[in-house]
Amino acid sequence: MVFRLFILLSLFWPAIGTAQGLQLAFSDVSDSANAPLEMSADAMAIDQEAGTAMMTGNVIIIQGQLRLTAPKISVSYGDGGEVQDILAEGGVTFVTAAEEVEAQTARYRPTDDSMVLTGDVLLVQGPSAVSAETMVINLASGTAQLEGRVRTVLQPSSQ
Q1: How far apart are CA 132 and CA 152, in angstroms?
Q2: Which of 55, 68, 84, 145 is least crowded, fewest Cβ atoms below 10 Å from its Cβ?
Q3: What is the pTM of this model?
Q4: What b-and-e string marks burial along 63-72, b requiring 16 or more CB atoms within 10 Å of the CB?
Q5: In angstroms, rounded to a whole number, what is the distance separating the alpha carbons of residues 65 and 50?
Q6: Which residues pair with 146 in a beta bridge?
């Protein structure tokens, strides 16, 4: 399904990737939003008054089928301990069951199921790849919007 969307976009609207951005389907990750959030790192500093935690060194955050890794991740949380914002920096990898995305930074907001990746974004879905400067993923709807010199590499399907 996603591959066919890539084919249609490349055949019928070749300028959409550079002029307006590219919207594509992302794998279904809706059940991950209610899964426990597991975090690990080489070091962690917590400021309870500010409601923040800073993790450094081989940071891995897993929630359901989602995995976010980076050298440095800061987390902001509310009074009840719920995570409100996660900022990953220094080279980020975001993985779902069907995609892998690399970028320089990523901001994940669990409350609105969105992730914004910036800086040399590379999305790989199977044999196809898309690159851009910015990618906004709506994890609830399974869509992604790419902007900033969007380029695609589409592999034909084998029959």
Answers
A1: 9
A2: 84
A3: 0.74
A4: bbebbbbbbb
A5: 29
A6: 22, 135
For 26-66, the pLDDT digits (tens) are 655 656 667 887 889 999 999 989 999 999 999 998 888 88
Closest CA to 37 of 102, 125, 97, 110: 110
For strand 43-47 and strand 52-63, is the pairing parallel, antiparallel, or unpaired? Answer: antiparallel
Q: Among 124, 115, 121, 117, which residue's Cα sits nearest to residue 149? A: 121
Express each pLDDT in 86-124 by its tens digit: 899 999 998 888 889 999 999 988 888 888 999 999 998
Q: How many residues in total does the chain contain?
A: 159
Residue at 129: amino acid letter: A
